[in-house]
Design goal:
six-stranded parallel sheet, 10 helices, alpha/beta, 21% strand, 14 strands, six-stranded mixed sheet
Length: 336
């Protein structure tokens, strides 16, 4: 009998009951269930981006890992170097944009879920002000900020957006401070973009405002506050990628899953949304799933007024996943 494949997983934050790391870990559990004793897994969590991550990756390979899951954008360069030194080890990297024969990447079309959340936010806001607490200004998150803005303005054209970048994937105290800041500026709906804990959800519950969060269904932490949760499910992708490794035909590719694949879904819609409002949200969701509509369909302009997509045109994937600009009307600038 062949030795089991050893799957090593590195997460940027602790595995808790909800959050990004939790969703990755649920996919790991799905792999174990799918392949049984053909696979063993080992998790190292709460590893910051930087030298520590590189050391952990190398140690996992030294300990016999055949397959690595690199669970954060900032692990990319260390992962690339490791992939070049160890062509016998297959790897998948979250949110990266560079692939090799043995290093693939996976990204969620989270902007599709947040577009639906933006519609809901525009429907329920009474102050006409929406706050966004965003982690890092990487293309994936920038696309989500833009999607929220476009959707909210479909419903409420003059809505104000208050945007704060916390420049961290995991800093609950700073995240809570940012949430309070946008609420103090009048936001009665707050978006929590890539906070790995219920930090922003807890503030929203305490302050009596609505929140749309990333990663997991966090409604248990904000039963009144959660307007909807944009949930990531990596199970099918992890099972497929590990299966390819087991069969010896893994090839590093770019995986981008959205509403249509079930990688992204919006759960825990709040009962404050009326039947008519939910019907409009579900209609928009169906159009995105079928391809009839697209979040970044023209006409589309950026902050400077430059046209990014003309009427009848859809922004292509390479531009979405390299997005480094904010849509027309958003305040402030991107952090460097």
């Amino acid at each position: 009998m062949a030795e089991p494949l050893m799957m090593g997983l590195i997460y940027p934050s602790p595995v808790a009951d909800v959050g990004w790391a939790k969703q990755l870990d649920l996919a790991r559990e799905a792999v174990e269930e799918a392949y049984g004793d053909r696979v063993t897994t080992r998790v190292v969590d709460n590893i910051p981006e930087g030298p520590d991550a590189g050391r952990v990756m190398n140690q996992l390979v030294s300990d016999g890992a055949d397959f690595l899951v690199l669970g954060s954008f900032g692990y990319m360069n260390d992962g690339l170097r490791l992939a070049q030194r160890h062509p016998e080890v297959n790897m998948i990297h979250a949110s990266g944009f560079r692939q090799t024969e043995n290093l693939g990447t996976f990204t969620a079309r989270g902007y599709e879920g947040f577009y639906l959340g933006g519609l809901a936010a525009g429907m329920v806001t009474e102050t006409n002000t929406i706050g966004i607490v965003a982690a890092f200004a990487v293309p994936e998150v920038i696309a989500e900020v833009n999607a929220i803005t476009l959707a909210a303005r479909e419903v409420s054209p003059d809505v104000n957006i208050r945007l704060v970048w916390v420049n961290s994937w995991f800093d609950p105290a700073r995240e809570q401070e940012a949430a309070r800041a946008v609420i103090s500026q009048g936001a009665d709906v707050v978006f929590s973009l890539h906070q790995d804990t219920p930090s922003v959800v807890n503030v929203a519950q305490a302050e009596g405002v609505y929140v749309v969060n990333t990663g997991s269904n966090m409604s248990a932490h904000g039963p009144d506050a959660v307007l909807g949760s944009v949930v990531h499910d990596w199970s099918k992708y992890f099972i497929r990628a590990v299966g390819e490794a087991l069969e010896g035909n893994f090839k590093g590719q770019d995986e981008r899953g959205g509403l249509a694949s079930g990688t992204v879904s919006v759960q825990a819609w709040n009962d404050v949304l009326t039947e008519e409002q939910m019907a409009r949200i579900k209609e928009a969701e169906a159009a995105l799933v079928s391809g009839e509509d697209h979040v970044f369909a023209g006409p589309l302009k950026d902050q400077s007024g430059t046209e990014r997509a003309v009427e009848g045109e859809v922004l292509p994937d390479p531009e979405i996943f390299a997005m480094n600009w904010l849509v027309e009307g958003l305040p402030g600038s991107l952090p460097q």
